[in-house]
Design a protein that fits this description.
The structure is a single chain. 0% of the residues lie in helices and 52% in strands. It contains no helices and eleven strands. Strands 2, 4, 5, 6, 9, 10 and 11 form a seven-stranded mixed beta sheet that branches. Strands 1-3-8-7 form a four-stranded antiparallel beta sheet, with no helix packed on it. Strand 9 and strand 10 form a beta hairpin. The relative contact order is 0.33.
Amino acid sequence: EVRLVESGGGLVQPGGSLRLSCAASGFTVSSYAMNWVRQAPGKEFEWVSTMNSRGGTYYADSVKGRFTISRDNAKNTLYLQMDNLKTEDTAVYYCAAISYRGQGTQVTVSS
């Protein structure tokens, strides 16, 4: 059974940092493209970042230079390091792979 479980969200002030984790089971994260997407209140889903199976990384312009995607193959876990957070980063963040998506973790950036 494929499962994706996100964690690490929370409330942070503008300029702060958070690291999101996505623990995967039922498949190997290093064998597939792994994605982070987010959905802000009242808005459509927005792609944030992708790591492909070869380790190549891609970012939306809105987060480039502030977010870093990575994975730990031994832990079968995907990460999203988010630095210099802005209020517009407030959203529910999901990891997604193949045709699966986790339950999401809330990130709120507010003073």
